[in-house]
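4.2 Preliminary Data

To establish feasibility before requesting continued support, the project team ran the inverse folding procedure on a target of 243 residues. The structure was first converted into the token representation described in Section 3, and no sequence information of any kind was made available to the design step. The complete token record follows.
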């Protein structure tokens, strides 16, 4: 598991502190968290529950603002941006894939995939064409007019991936993308995500507890107590009983 050669850094955090509450109720989620991910790479964030993985993912996505530290995504410093600027940046540059798929049940498969484009103001006809093309890429041609609840879990996750990629984001963020899937379906989904990461204009960051998919990572960043403990290329170096 080695990264493609000579890639520039896509995501960099330095000295990130993130806490919630005050006084006796104060909870520290991140402590001087330093993290890097490269262009053309699929990197996983792993660690025990409560170690700060999802919080760090949210900081990278700009949905949480840390108390200290810097965040840079594809050359753009996120710390210091206004909420409006962050929202605009996310719409243009980020795609999200969630554990629970987060599809809208009242919309067709095609309409679900069109949502990010329509939010950006893309013309209806263009959005339809792009959504159809993306669904074909993820193997769902012919399913466009169906509803999400008529699909299997793996097919729903493919719709979620199509929706996340339809606006061609630079950074794809996946939060527990396979935990609701069986082994074979999860492997198919991760192979697709890995293939999608193979572009110098894209980076994929995956938070997971699913040790079955560690083999799809170029590198694995292990978190503990709000910090990056170490980064490895060989999943066998990890104690999966601890994660």
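Position-by-position output of the design step:
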């Amino acid at each position: 598991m080695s990264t493609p050669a000579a890639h520039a850094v896509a995501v960099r955090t330095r000295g990130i502190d993130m806490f919630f509450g005050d006084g006796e109720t104060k909870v520290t989620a991140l402590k001087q968290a330093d993290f890097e991910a490269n262009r053309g790479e699929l990197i996983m964030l792993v660690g025990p529950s409560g170690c700060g993985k999802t919080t760090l993912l949210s900081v990278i996505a700009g949905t949480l603002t840390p108390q200290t530290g810097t965040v840079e995504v594809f050359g753009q410093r996120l710390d210091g941006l206004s909420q409006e600027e962050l929202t605009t940046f996310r719409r243009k540059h980020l795609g999200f894939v969630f554990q629970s798929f987060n599809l809208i049940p009242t919309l067709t498969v095609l309409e679900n995939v069109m949502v990010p484009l329509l939010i950006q103001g893309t013309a209806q006809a263009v959005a339809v064409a792009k959504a159809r093309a993306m669904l074909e890429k993820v193997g769902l041609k012919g399913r466009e007019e169906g509803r999400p609840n008529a699909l299997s879990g793996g097919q729903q996750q493919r719709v979620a991936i199509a929706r996340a990629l339809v606006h061609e984001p630079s950074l794809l963020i996946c939060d527990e993308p396979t935990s609701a899937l069986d082994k074979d379906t999860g492997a198919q989904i991760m192979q697709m995500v890995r293939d999608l990461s193979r572009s110098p204009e894209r980076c994929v960051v995956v938070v997971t507890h699913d040790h079955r998919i560690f083999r799809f990572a170029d590198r694995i960043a292990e978190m503990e107590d709000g910090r990056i403990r170490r980064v490895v290329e060989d999943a066998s170096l990890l104690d999966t009983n601890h994660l």
